[in-house]
Amino acid sequence: MMPGRTVLTAKHFMNGDEACAEGALAAGCRFFAGYPITPSTEIAEHLARRLPEVNGVFIQMEDELASMAAILGASAAGSRSMTATSGPGLSLMMENIGLGVMLELPCVVVDVQRGSPSTGLPTMAGQADVMQARWGTHGDHEIAAYAPWSPQEMFDLTVLSFNVADRYRLPVLLMSDEVVGHMVEKVVIPPAEQIQYWERKRPTSPPGSRFDPFRADDEDLVPPIVHAGEGYRIHYTGLTHNEHGYPDMSAETHNRLVTRLVEKVRRNADQIIRTEGYYLDDARIVVVSFGCTARSARRAVREARQLNIPVGLLRLISLWPFPEHIVRDLAQRVDDFIVAEMNLGQMSREVERVARREVKGVHHAGGAMISPEPILEAIVESAKVYSA
Amino acid sequence: MTQATFTDSHPLDQIIRSDRMPHIWCPGCGIGIVMHCYAQAILEYSLPAEKHVVVSGIGCSGRVAGYMNIDSYHTTHGRAIPFALGIKLTKPELMVTVFSGDGDLAAIGGNHLIHAARRNVDIKVICVNNFNYGMTGGQVGPTTPKGAFGTTAPYGNPEQPFNLPYLLAAVGANFVSRWTAMHVRQVKEDILYSFSKPGFTFIEVLAPCPVGFGKSNDIEDGLEEMELYRQRSVLVCDGDVRAEGLVIDLREEKPIYVGRFIDRDLAVYMPVKLETVE
After folding, report:
1. Nearest CA of chain A to the CA of B186: how many Å?
2. I need a surface site. Which of A66, A223, A294, B76 has the fewest CB within 10 A?
């Protein structure tokens, strides 16, 4: 058997999970560790077949705790690495996502969300892991998370997730959902040379000289990364550590470290955040949505426009960091926010926090896609209030 | 009268982060002895120190990663083995050793221990077994002898302990041995041997923990526990890992069986590689 091609440049008809797997390969991912869980399993199945074709490593681990630890280890040795799961598995991964934040090890964690909490609705969609993505691991931290709304974006945002992970030394979450994961659509995989590749920042001094692996001298607050086996004799610890990487049990060092880890993301938020607007220029009402629900929201907004309602859609392509300045700017000039999401108000809460006003939620606990009708109804209701 | 002499360096300075000394371990603790054996084995082995990686979990033994002057990773509680697996499969040319304690490896990390041994992945595990959770102050763990006391077993431990060599032999490790912190030469020799042995290797080293385990179980200090090891250790050469004989109970006049129990060549885990056909 010939080694397979890494980038399957062509127009494809494939589901979101497979597109995610191909996105990972195109991005240079050569290590996947995972545990089967619906509705993400196709990602593991696809990579089990494809990774050996490109001399990559696929391993099915004993659980999600191990999967997450293994991809951090692979990342520490220099590989682009990924795992994929759904809510119950994401809960188990939280422990080592925190380690990834603390050790600043780039990796990508895919969550194909299903109905939750607990075992919930294994085969049906949900979007209720949004706040777990943000706050699931303990302690102050910032995280990056993307929410694809199509198989095409499963490909594109997987590539972006790897780039953001490497550029900012972060675990990045791809927060998909069962609808997008299992939806089959056209996916265009571009030529390899058109796929962006953001390099990890690497040390400039050779091994042997004094080197502080956690000193971030650059304005972006990202320290250059050193991999296992490169001769620097580096120490990584989940304990609070100083710039040299050594444990330092002092309040001052702790505050300096955690503040930098948080500031690293906040300062670079504009480079991480992705949003898309429809009809926002003259909008008086804004629907905020993401993932599969944004597809219904776009339909509802189009129909409302036909009713001459000045409504627009803000689609959150990135969930975290939250696009605060965009929502704040909109809040200056629009009358009303409607947040449509397949949970009972997680992102509504965030929009309220930033817009500093009450928003209307079109919420459902999950299990079926929110259809355009309730979103349209909410738009019409809002239009009545604000045109009166 | 003999004059004390002072020296600025130690032969292991190149392998141990002397700028991190003094270490956190209590007087009488056995972990430092085992770390010394590990450092000595690295010095003596043919691979340059730059190609050695140590991964630890959490606990007193987990601090070893922070003291070794090689690429070192102090990870989360119980997850050292899967983290190490990620490194090893990415860079197979590295010698990846997991150095951790019995609670970290056999309790919270027990599932990873079993599965890594089942896969027979090429990772070297050094497990310091001090029969309790030392860092948190002497709680019972999965290796605490039945009836022994701990801060969470004030009436005596009601549970059966793990027989770790028996477990590791059953699931498929290529090399399993047990020694005590008194057996410095054997520990060093076995670590050295494990470096040259492909597959999953497991070396259990019984170690005194006078502050955690000893205080609750009438073992006055580290020296007394070492004396118990000296008196009771019985070398086993026939690879017998039957559960009955290997259960340790320091409070009874029973032998402590030590030695190399398993040394075999089962197939070592390799990620799937597709052969290129012209």
Report:
1. 27
2. A223
The CATH number for B130's domain is 3.40.50.970
Question: What rounded mean pLDDT belongs to chain B?
Answer: 94
The answer to the question of residue A248 being in a domain is no
CB distance B147 to B155 below 8 Å: no
Instruction: Give the integer Cα–Cα distance in Å for B80 and B125.
Output: 10
Handedness of CA B161, B164, B166, B170 (dihedral sign): positive
Give kind and range of the element (H or E) at residue B234.
Answer: strand B233-235
In a domain, B50, yes or no: yes
What local confidence, expressed as pLDDT, does residue B76 receive? Answer: 98
Closest by alpha carbon to A141, among A274, A320, A356?
A320
Cis peptide before B161 (omega within 30 of 0): no
Q: Is residue B273 part of a domain?
A: no
Residue A108, beta-bridge partner list: A82, A172
**B277 has pLDDT over 60:** no
- Parallel, antiparallel or unpaired: strands A235-237 and B71-74: parallel
pLDDT digits (tens, 9 = 90+) for B124-179: 999 999 999 999 999 999 999 999 999 999 999 999 999 999 999 999 999 999 99
How would you classify residue A197: left for phi > 0, otherwise alpha for psi between -120 and 50, otherwise beta? beta
B24-63 tens-digit pLDDT: 999 999 999 999 999 999 999 999 999 999 999 999 999 9
In this prediction, the residues of chain A whose per-residue pLDDT falls under 70 are 1-4, 388
A59 contacts on B by Cβ (under 8 Å):
85, 89, 271
Out of B20, B49, B85, the one facing A246 most closely (by C-beta) is B20
Q: Cβ–Cβ of B276/A234 closer than 8 Å?
A: no
Does the reported pTM lie above 0.90? yes
- How far does Cα A166 stand from its chain's mean position? 13
Domain that holds residue B166: 18-263
Residue A323, domain member (yes or no): yes
Q: How many CB atoms lie within 10 A of CB A3?
A: 12
Say what the pLDDT of residue A121 is: 96
How far apart are alpha carbons A181 and A327 in whole angstroms? 28
pLDDT, residue B251, reads 73
How far does chain A reach from its first CA to its final CA, in angstroms? 70
| Reported ipTM | 0.97
> What is the total count of domains within chain A?
2
In a domain, B197, yes or no: yes
Q: Write out chain A residues lying below 8 Å of B20, CB-based.
A: 246
Give how many domains chain B has, as a whole number.
1
What are the φ and ψ backbone dihedral angles of B232, each rounded to 5 degrees? -105, -10
DSSP state of B151: T
What interhelical angle do B80-90 and B110-119 show, nearest 10? 30
Confidence at residue A2, expressed as pLDDT on a 0 to 100 scale: 41
Q: Are the C-beta atoms of A85 and A114 separated by less than 8 Å? A: no
Q: Which of A92, A211, A359 is nearest to B76 (CA)?
A: A92
Residue A158 and residue A44 share a domain: yes
State the CATH number of the domain containing residue A290: 3.40.50.920
Domain closes at, from A171, A194, A217: A194
Count how many residues are written for chain B.
278
Residues in chain A: 388
Quote the minimal CA–CA distance from A268 to chain B in Å: 27
